[in-house]
């Protein structure tokens, strides 16, 4: 069976290259024509601290994609999910599946387009960055969890975990939405670190006031998950119990949560977020509007307010448009907004 990786950027590129290296038949699909051309001409290079490699790959643009897709690994930015599903849905076989290797709450969108039965949830917390056409950086290790949306421990999920284990150690959960939501709510903290040109650990170690703001930001999203009936799971550098305690004023829990984040990023080759790279390097629109915007929409449906998150979304929009520059004053503004919200 051909494995279709739709979106061959950072996560999709590392995934596709690892699968090819393991002997699987892989087709990479990406809308960036220069990236596709470079991959076809000289292979896909993955650079990592543990060693780099280049593999020959097959790559096409979406307009050249045929029908009869059995397994699709979807790795586009969240804002590009609807367009990707317009291409994929009519091409997916009746017993096919789409696995979301994305940030955000894309499983709902995928299930609406192809059915929950053909949708597999996934948490990807290992890191990668797109460097240049046909060049990807593997930025560090992290959790890799798959599961059926209804919580069944299925043979399909086990097969997929075994398949993807060549990319990173993968396992199956009966609460995959608890993992995808957990990364989503914690991701709000990472978005906030991108308003300044600094390493993630520099932001979370900045001051107690900054740490309290970051905790409050995550707590806003956690409240939405709780109201939606999601049981959040701990993974890697995020433990919901620490953030709940810290939000109630537990200084030791706050310090523990922030030390864990800082330590995680100090150990990685990738020490800044993909949001930062989109703003500072690639100078393109980020996926923040789609990511955090989805949380705000869900919050409104549940009767919850998210003033701090909405301020962060506005700050990122200003950075995208050039109306403001990266800098510590942006962090200070979020701290002030956190105090007002409190």
Task: Detail the topology: elements first, then pairings.
Elements: E1 3-6, H1 10-21, E2 26-29, H2 33-42, E3 44-47, E4 53-55, E5 58-60, E6 69-74, H3 81-88, E7 92-100, H4 106-114, E8 119-124, E9 127-132, E10 135-140, E11 144-148, H5 155-164, E12 171-172, H6 176-193, H7 200-204, H8 208-227, H9 240-247, H10 251-266, H11 274-280, H12 288-301, H13 307-321, H14 328-341
Parallel strand pairs: 1-2, 1-6, 2-5, 3-10, 6-7, 7-8, 11-12
Antiparallel strand pairs: 3-4, 8-11, 9-10
Query: Averaged pLDDT, please?
Result: 97
Please give the CATH class of the largest domain. Alpha Beta
The counted number of beta strands is 12
Report the sheet-strand fraction.
15-25%
The CATH superfamily of the largest domain is: NAD(P)-binding Rossmann-like Domain
User: Please, how many helices?
Assistant: 14
Largest sheet: 8 strands, mixed
């Amino acid at each position: 069976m051909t494995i279709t990786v739709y979106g061959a950027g950072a996560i999709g590129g590392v995934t596709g290259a690892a699968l090819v290296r393991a002997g699987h038949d892989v087709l990479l699909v990406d809308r960036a024509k220069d990236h596709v051309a470079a991959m076809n001409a000289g292979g896909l290079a993955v650079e990592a601290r543990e060693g780099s490699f280049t593999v020959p790959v097959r790559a096409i643009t979406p307009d050249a994609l045929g029908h009869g897709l059995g397994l699709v690994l979807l790795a586009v930015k969240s804002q590009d999910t609807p367009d990707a599903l317009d291409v994929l849905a009519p091409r997916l076989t009746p017993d096919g599946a789409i696995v979301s290797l994305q940030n955000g709450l894309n499983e709902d969108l995928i299930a609406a387009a192809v059915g929950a039965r053909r949708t597999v949830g996934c948490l990807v917390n290992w890191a990668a960055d797109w460097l240049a056409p046909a060049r990807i950086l593997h930025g560090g290790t992290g959790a890799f969890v798959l599961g059926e949306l209804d919580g069944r421990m299925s043979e399909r999920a086990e097969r997929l975990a075994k398949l993807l284990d060549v990319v990173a150690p993968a396992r199956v959960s009966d609460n995959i939405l608890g993992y995808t939501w957990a990364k989503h709510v914690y991701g709000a903290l990472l978005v906030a670190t991108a308003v300044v040109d600094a390493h993630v650990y520099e932001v979370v170690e900045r001051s107690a006031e900054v740490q309290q703001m970051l905790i409050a930001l995550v707590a806003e999203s956690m409240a939405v998950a709780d109201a939606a009936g999601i049981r959040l799971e701990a993974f890697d550098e995020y433990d919901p119990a620490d953030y709940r305690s810290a939000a109630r004023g537990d200084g030791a829990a706050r310090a523990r949560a922030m030390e864990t984040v800082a330590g995680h990023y100090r150990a990685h080759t990738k020490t800044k977020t993909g949001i930062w790279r989109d703003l500072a390097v690639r100078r393109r629109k980020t996926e923040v509007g789609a990511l955090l915007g989805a949380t705000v929409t869900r919050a409104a449906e549940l009767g919850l307010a998210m003033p701090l998150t909405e301020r962060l979304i506005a700050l990122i929009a200003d950075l995208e448009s050039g109306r403001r520059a990266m800098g510590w004053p942006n962090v200070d503004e979020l701290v002030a907004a956190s105090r007002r919200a409190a």
